Amino acid sequence: MAFAITQNCCNDASCLSVCPVNCIHPTPDEPDFGHTESLYIDPRTCIDCGACADACPVDAITRVSRLPADQAIYAEINADYYRDRPVVAEWATPKFPPAAINTMPRFDVAIVGTGPAACYAAQALLRVPSSRITFYDRLRVPGGLARFGVAPDHTGTRRIGEHFRSMFTHPRVTMKLGVDVGVDVSHATLSERHDYVVYAVGADTDRRLDIPGIDLPGSMSARTLVGWYTGHPDVPADAIDLTGVRRVTIIGNGNVALDAARILTADPEDLVGTDISPHALAALRASTVSEVVIAARRGPEHAAFTRSECQALVTRRGVEVAVSGPEGTKQSIEELPMSAPASALQNAAVVDLNDNDVVPALGSARRIVFGFGRAPIGVSGGQRVDGVEFEDGTVVASDLVLLAIGYRGRPSPGLPFDTAKGAIRNVGGRIVDDNDARVPGRYVVGWAKRGATGGIGDNKVDSEETVEALLEDIADAPPSERRRLGRVKLRSGR
Ligand code: SF4
Predict the structure, then answer these.
(1) Out of 23, 313, 339, 409, which could bridge 422 as a Cys pair, Cβ 3.0 to 4.6 Å?
(2) What is the pLDDT at residue 458?
């Protein structure tokens, strides 16, 4: 009986290197890597050794025979990935760290940020015995999105934070918390103080939706809700007021939207003992929310959420999950292949969102409705929001509106910025200026490098690419030489 990869998969590929029979795919060398929401175990070749389960940082791998009922479908999902794929017998060429890492001169790296991309970069750098790292974070608590972005009920995924925390106490690591780089210390000063600087600053603003009423009280970013329930220091306890709120409409249908919907409809007692902030738990205990509408601009075949997150919603007890949309929506869902995210909604009831009665159907205490084909054109209300208007002429009465259409990086004076991507300008992790000329000694990882796409584990390969570039540059020019060249360039205006 094979093992299967389940809902928590973070895609960081730690399991691949320990599998003795190469039956976990896609690997970083395969075209699908980074495009599938999970890795999958080929049940035809798995020899049931369990090595991958031990290596997984988020406990996502389980023996098929031990899958709980609500995760049983993952046996089929793993097998389905291989349905039309041949058994991969050959191994990719193994990659070993260059022998030169043991003879590299001592160098020190400032890493700006302490989230997953920063930690994966540190992990790769610390393989070089002569490296020293200083983490900078504007917050006094390290962890970034591993701490303040992962929902408290995703306990498996949050476990990766423990793995990262060991990095912060490594003997070759120094922590500088409460230091806002670009404000408390300039980018130029940082480059003077350290041989290399790696920016892992993420994407800390929202994509804008310019529709009338979007800034009304009661309409806010889903990021605020996430920060509220994870206890982010920037988000005050009273940032979310659920008093009298019955229906919440979330504009956008990515995993952040699903996290928000799940927390707002959760039984608060199920959150006791998690890392949820005390103020959020108290508010959820008093909450009157009975329905959350997830408004997706397009149809179910274009769903932005992942199948695993949707699967986690439909298998919960006590919350009805329904769909709504133009004629043919249900049929479109039924025709989706198993790998399609919205195929998890095949057993969901169909409801009419034009009916403003928010009392859930079928006797459930709460309801989540996936509203497909809902392009928002305005948020209505006087002193406060009271509804969301859609292109098809419908209005969904709403007491709270959350915008969850994605994140964006923000330009920082002194760092070249790619406006189209919402990220720091770079080529393969090396920062470049507006003329695509290298900025010596400066690198970037994570969302700040590629734009706000991908989950925690996607940062591993991404950060390793940047560190590989940095180590190549050390081999080409030792740190002392590079700093001299870098200072010349910095003095000339950067
Ligand atoms: Fe590979 Fe062993 Fe995991 Fe099967 S149980 S996928 S053989 S590491």
Answers:
(1) 409
(2) 87
Closest ligand 1 atom number to CA of residue 2: 4
Residue 364 has pLDDT above 70, yes or no: no
Q: Within 13 A of 429's CA, how many CA atoms are on the CB side? A: 24
- pLDDT tens digits for 444-460? 999 999 999 888 888 99
User: Which residues belong to CATH 3.40.50.720 in the chain?
Assistant: 107-204+407-492
Q: Domain 107-204+407-492, what fold? A: Rossmann fold (3.40.50)
Ligand 1 atom nearest 19 alpha carbon? 8
Residue pair 366/265 in contact by the 8 Å Cβ criterion: yes
Condensed to tens digits (0 to 9), the pLDDT of residues 4-39 reads: 999 888 888 889 888 888 899 999 888 888 888 889
**Start-to-end C-alpha separation, the chain:** 59
Pick one of 2.60.40.1220, 3.50.50.60, 3.40.50.920, 3.40.720.10 as the CATH number of 213-403: 3.50.50.60
Give 50-108 pLDDT, tens digit per residue.
999 999 988 899 999 999 988 899 999 999 999 888 887 677 776 666 667 888 899 99
From the alpha carbon of 55, which atom of ligand 1 is closest? 8
Q: 106-119: per-residue pLDDT in tens?
A: 999 999 999 999 99
Distance CA 11, CA 26 (A): 10
Alpha helix (H) ranges present in 218-321?
A: 222-230, 255-264, 268-271, 278-285, 307-314
- 306 CA distance to ligand 1 centroid (A)? 24
Residues having CB closer than 6 A to ligand 1 are: 3, 18-21, 23-24, 41, 46-52
Instruction: Give the single-character DSSP code of 92.
Output: P
pTM, whole model, 2 decimals? 0.86
Q: What are the tokens at 220?
A: 């806010």
Phi/psi at 481 (nearest 5 deg)? -65, -45
Distance 453 CA to ligand 1 centre (A): 29
Fold of 3-81: Alpha-Beta Plaits (3.30.70)
Separation of 472 CA from ligand 1 center, angstroms? 34
